[in-house]
Amino acid sequence: PQPTYLHDYQPPAHRVTHTELTFDLSPGATRVKARLHLERHPDREDAAESPLVLDGEQLSLKGIAIDGQPLDADEYRVSDTQLTVHRVPERFLLDTEVEIAPEANTALEGLYQSNGMYCTQCEAEGFRRITFYPDRPDVMATFSTTVVGDAQREPVLLSNGNLVERGELPNGRHFVTWEDPHPKPCYLFALVAGNLQKVEDSFTTMSGREVALQIWVEEENLDKTDHAMASLKRAMAWDEQTYGREYDLDLFMIVAVNDFNMGAMENKGLNIFNSAAVLTHPQTATDAAFQRVEGIVAHEYFHNWSGNRVTCRDWFQLSLKEGFTVFRDQCFSADTNSAPVKRIEDVAFFRTAQFAEDAGPTAHPIRPDHYIEITNFYTLTIYEKGAEVVRMLRNLVGWEAFRQGSDRYFERFDGQAVTIEDFVDCMAEASGLDLSQFMRWYSQAGTPEIDAHGEYDYAKAEYHLTLRQRTPATPGQPDKLPLHIPVRLGLVGTKSGEDLRMTLDGEELGRDAVIHLREEEQHFVFTDIAEAPVPSLLRGFSAPVKLRFPYAREDLAFLLTHDSDGFNRWDAGQRLALLALDDLIAAHRNGVEKVMDVRVIEAFRGLLNAETDDKAVLAEMLTLPSEAYIAEQQPVVDVDAIHAARTFVKQSLAVALRDDFLRVYHDNASDAAYAPEPEQIAARSLKNVALSYLMSVEDEEGIELAQRQFSAGHNMTDVRCALTLLTHSSRGDLADPALRLFGEKWAHDPLVMDQWFSIQVTRPQADVLDRLTYLMEHPAFSLKNPNRVRALIGAFAGQNRVNFHRIDGAGYRLLADVVIELNRLNPEIAARIITPLTRWQRFDEQRQALMKAELERIRAEELSPNVFEVVEKALA
Ligand code: HT7
Ligand code: ZN
C-alpha cells in the first residue's frame, strides 16, 4: 500500500451538490442506487479535462448512466478501489446501482449487520463500501435517502435529517424517505434499520425551537437510556450557554449497537453509539461508565458544530474536529462534575498512554504529513494531545478571546471544509497574539521535556528559575525546534505556606501566573520574594510536557499539603510516591530488602486525617501511580520489579494505616438510593480505595467487607469493585464463588459480561494465561465483537503487565495469534489491539527479541493496510 501525503492535497475536480440514495435491504444482497448531482469544481483549472474519478471498494456494479443514458463498457473503468468515467459534461447526473453484502461485513466499516440490525459506519472512508462516491470530507452535499426494508424484520428505517415520506410496498416491504438539508461530507452519512424501540424527550433551544430527542435501542435496553438522555439535554444547554451554538434540525437521534469499532459516531442528526457508550443502569454500569457515557454523548453532540457544520478539508486535519471537540467535552464534564478530578483523571491517562505513544514507533504529529491507513490515526495524539493544544490556546488567549475566536470560526466557515490554520488564525485575530511559533505543536511529534532549576537568593530576595526545553527525536523527525510553552506557576512560601506575589521584569504577575517559554533555554528572575519558596510548576498541567525539577521529598510533602492548585497537590503526591517506588524497584532488582519510606506513610496519614470537603480529590490522592505510569519513568521497564515495588508500597500503607482505612470505609458507606452524582461518586470512590488497601493485605475484616459489599448488590460500582478485589486476591476460595454467581446472574447482559471477562484476565496471579485461553473458548466470546475483544484480549495485554510480559513469551504469542485472525476479520481492531507488542524498545533484550519475533511472524502474513502500516513502523 502507498502512503497519502498532505503536500499532495488538491481540491476535487468534481463536486457533488446533491445526493439521492435508495437502499433495498437484504443481508446478502443489498441494492444501492445512487443519483449524484455533479459539477466541475471551480477551483480546479484542469477540471474540464479531468475524468470523473469516484472511490469504491467491494462493490459489484450493476448499472451506470449519465443524464439517463446508460454508459458503454469503454466509457468507464472499474478497479478494486475506483470507478473512472473518462469524459463527463460540465454539470450532469450520474446514476449507479451496486450490490453489497452487509451480513458478510465483519470489518464494521460501511453497511453491516449487528444482532440482525443494519447500521453504517462511514468515517473515515467507509462510504466507499456503500456506493461509488468522492469519499473525501471536502465534498459536501445535501442528501435524500430512501430505505426499503422488510416491514416485520425492519419496522424502523432511519437516516439523516427529517423524515419526509413513508409507505407500504408489495411483498411485505415498506420504505421511508429522509432528507438532510445541511450539506455534509459522506463520512457523516448514516442508515439504521431493524427492530428497535425508542425513548423520546424534547429540548427547547435558546431561540425557542422544539427539538425531538430519540434514543433507539433493542427492547430489553429501554430501561438503560435515562442517563444518556439527561446527558444529551445537559450538553445541548451547555453548548448554547458556553459557545452560543444551537442545534439545527427538528430531530436528534441516537442509536445503540452492540458491534462497533469505536465509542460512537456523530452522523448528522443520527448518532450511532457503541451500546457501551450509551446504556447505563445502576445495577449494570459503574460510576466510571456513567461518566463515560455522559462525556461521549456530549462529545458526539458537540461535533454537530465542531466537525459537521464546519468540517475538515482532508483527513490530515482530523485533530481540527477531534482535538477541539475533546476539549469541549472535557470542559463540559468538568463543569458538570468535579473539575479537579476530571483534570486529574484526564492527565493521569494522558501522561501514561499518550506519552507512551509519542515515545514509540508510531509517534506522529497532531497533524501527520502522511498515512497509509487513516483509521490508524484515530489516536491519543490526534484526540487528547490535540485537546491539550486547544486548551493551551484557550489559556494563552484567555476565555473571552477564545470564545470570540470560536464564534468567528463557526460563522466564517459554516458549511465549509477547512484546515487547522483556519482555526488558529481565528484565535490569533480575536486575541491579537502572534501564534506562529505555537503552530509547531501541530507539526512536531514527541513529548517536550522541560528541565527546571530554581534558586532562592536570600540577599536579593529573588527567585531565579531556569527552564530548558528539548523535544526528543521521533521517527522521521530527528531535529526539533523550540515550542511556545505556557508554564503556569506559583511560588509557595515555605514559612507562610501561601502563594507569594510574583514580580517579573518589573511586572506584577499576581500569585498565580503563566510564563511563556519560547527559547531553548530561558531565565526568569522573580523579584521581591520575601521568603524562600518551593515552586509549584506547570499548574493544572498547563502544557503537555514532561517537567523535571529536583524536588526534595520534603518539598513534595510540603506541596502536597500547601499548594493552592489542587492538580499540583495531587501531582506532588504522585512524585513523592514515585521517588519511593524508584528506591524499591532498585532494591528489588538488587535483591536487597525493601524498606518503606516513612515520609510517604506520614503524608498518607496526613491525607487520611485532614478535614476535606473534596472526597473525590482525596480518593485520587490516595491512589498510587499505576504500573504503566511507573514504567513510563523507567529507562528500561522491569515489569516484575515495578509490580513488586508497587505492591510493597500498597501493602506497607495498608498495614501502617489499617485503622484509618477502616474508618474511611465505614464513614463513606451508605445505603442511599444510587445516583450518578458527584457527591455520591466521590464517597464511593473513597470507600472503594480504602477497601482496596485493606484487601491488598487480605485483611480479615477487609475480606468480610468486600464479601458483604458484593452480596449486597447495591450498585455496579460497589459490586464490581468488590468482585475485582476478591478475584485479584490470592485466594481461590474468595474468587471462584463470586465469579460464578456474577457470571450466572448476568449471562444475558453483554456489557456486564464484558466486565466479567476483564476482571478475570487482569488478575495478577500467574495462572491467568490458562484462564484467558479457557475464556476464549467460552460460548459468549467472539472475535467478531470488538467490545469482547477489548474486554478480554485488550484488558489482558494492556492492563495485566506482569503476565502479558511473561518471560516465556506466552503472552506475546497469544496476542500475535489474535492479531493474525483479526487482521482477516476486522483490520481496524487488529491494528489497535497490537499496540502493546509495538512497544518492545522499552524492555530488556530477552523480551525485545520475543516481541520482535511475534511482530515478524505477523509480518509474514498477508496483511491488511491497517496492520501492515503499524507492523512496518514497529519493526523499522
Ligand atoms: N468521529 C468518530 C470517529 C469514529 C471512527 C473512526 C474510524 C473507525 C470507526 C469509527 N467510529 C467512530 C468518533 C468521534 O470521535 O466522535
Ligand atoms: Zn470525535
TrEMBL record:
Domain Peptidase M1 membrane alanine aminopeptidase: 228-441
Keyword hit for Hydrolase: yes
Obligatory cofactor(s): Zn(2+)
Peptidase M1 alanyl aminopeptidase Ig-like fold domain ranges (all copies): 446-548
EC number: 3.4.11.2
A single MF term (Gene Ontology): alanyl aminopeptidase activity
Keywords: Aminopeptidase, Hydrolase, Metal-binding, Metalloprotease, Protease, Zinc
Catalytic activity: Release of an N-terminal amino acid, Xaa-|-Yaa- from a peptide, amide or arylamide. Xaa is preferably Ala, but may be most amino acids including Pro (slow action). When a terminal hydrophobic residue is followed by a prolyl residue, the two may be released as an intact Xaa-Pro dipeptide
Domain Peptidase M1 alanyl aminopeptidase C-terminal residues, every copy: 554-876
Pfam families named among the record's database cross-references: DUF3458 (PF11940), DUF3458_C (PF17432), Peptidase_M1 (PF01433), Peptidase_M1_N (PF17900)
Domain Aminopeptidase N-like N-terminal: 47-188
SUPFAM superfamilies xref list: Leukotriene A4 hydrolase N-terminal domain, Metalloproteases ('zincins'), catalytic domain
Family note: Belongs to the peptidase M1 family.
Protein name: Aminopeptidase N
